[in-house]
Design goal:
By secondary structure, the chain is mostly helical. It is about 70% helix and about 0% strand.
């Protein structure tokens, strides 16, 4: 049958089935494209996690570097700090007696 106003042929239920079939085909193509990008999405996520771990490691190393720079500066300029570090290594002045305690609790 032909629509008098537009001149289009009405196909009835076949037209609807054709539209549904075309919609399903388009959805299947979109799903296929999405699934083909899935490995890339996982790979990208892995890269982001690795970058995050590296950034955390850089922050940790920068903090350690600042601590070491402070310690070097203090060893060069502060005699009390230098003496404390030397004592932590177990050294004493010639006229001092070093007493160490052992932890016997197990």
């Amino acid at each position: 049958m032909t629509d008098a106003h537009t001149g289009e042929v009405e196909l009835g239920w076949l037209g609807w089935m054709n539209r549904i079939l075309m919609t399903l085909i388009v959805l299947a193509l979109l799903a296929g494209i999405g699934l083909s990008y899935r490995p890339l999405i996982h790979q990208n996520q892995g890269y982001r996690e690795r970058v995050q771990r590296k950034q955390e490691e850089v922050q940790r190393l920068e903090a350690e570097l600042r601590r070491m720079e402070f310690e070097i500066r203090a060893l060069k300029t502060d005699p009390r700090f230098l003496e404390r570090k030397i004592r932590e290594l177990g050294y004493a002045r010639p006229d001092e007696l070093v007493v160490t305690f052992k932890d016997t609790v197990r």
